[in-house]
Design brief:
mainly alpha, about 60% helix, L6_membrane, transmembrane, Transmembrane 4 L6 family member 5, membrane, 6 helices, transmembrane helix, elongated
Length: about 200
């Protein structure tokens, strides 16, 4: 596969993943679908915006750059026509990889620490001492009095962010290598094309 076609394919995969991260992070801000909990009752990992900033915006840019790198370059088609866009895609992919790793770290910490919830009239990270073992013990989930259903809400959305950001990390890494090859070797060209 040509580096341009590969870049386009990778970019078209990164764009929906980044949008999934943005939506998942937005949903984390409204547990149980209600905005009444958004003052100081959300966990730090939600406010760090790993899905919105890291897995979202920081990956959306390399996704768009990769799609653009798959098109005709500023100098036209051919061996060197796409190198400037591929070079931009190299830097964008490195930037996107950092964003995806940030999202993965924040989301993993969110799963390990657990949500901030109300138990016995006290708002705290009540599952922090369990080192993530609360994930396997669903009877603990019912201990949270408010926000309602916050544990399955956080577990589902943070798990989605972990999966999406893991895929983004791999895809950005592949695009980083692909774009580097595209810069060094140029994009493949059809046989018989005149210069």
């Amino acid at each position: 596969m040509c580096t341009g076609k590969c870049a386009r394919c990778l970019g078209l995969s990164l764009i929906p993943l980044s949008l999934i991260c943005i939506v998942a992070n937005a949903l984390l801000l409204v547990p149980d679908g209600k905005t009444t909990w958004t003052n100081s009752n959300l966990s730090l990992q939600v406010w760090l915006m790993g899905g919105f900033v890291g897995g979202g915006l920081m990956v959306l840019c390399p996704g768009i750059a990769a799609v653009r790198a798959g098109g005709k370059g500023c100098c036209g088609a051919g061996c060197c026509g796409n190198r400037c866009r591929m070079l931009r895609s190299v830097f964008s992919s490195a930037f996107g990889m950092l964003g995806a790793i940030y999202c993965l770290s924040v989301s993993g910490a969110g799963l390990r620490v657990g949500p901030k919830c109300l138990i016995n009239n006290q708002w705290d990270y009540h599952f922090q001492e369990t080192q993530g073992s609360y994930l396997h013990n669903k009877t603990l989930w019912d201990l949270c009095e408010a926000p309602p259903h916050v544990v399955p809400w956080n577990v589902t959305l943070f798990s989605l962010l972990v999966v999406a950001s893991s895929l983004e990390t791999v895809l950005c890494g592949i695009q980083l290598v692909n774009a580097t090859i595209g810069v060094l070797c140029g994009d493949c060209q059809k046989k018989g094309s005149a210069h």
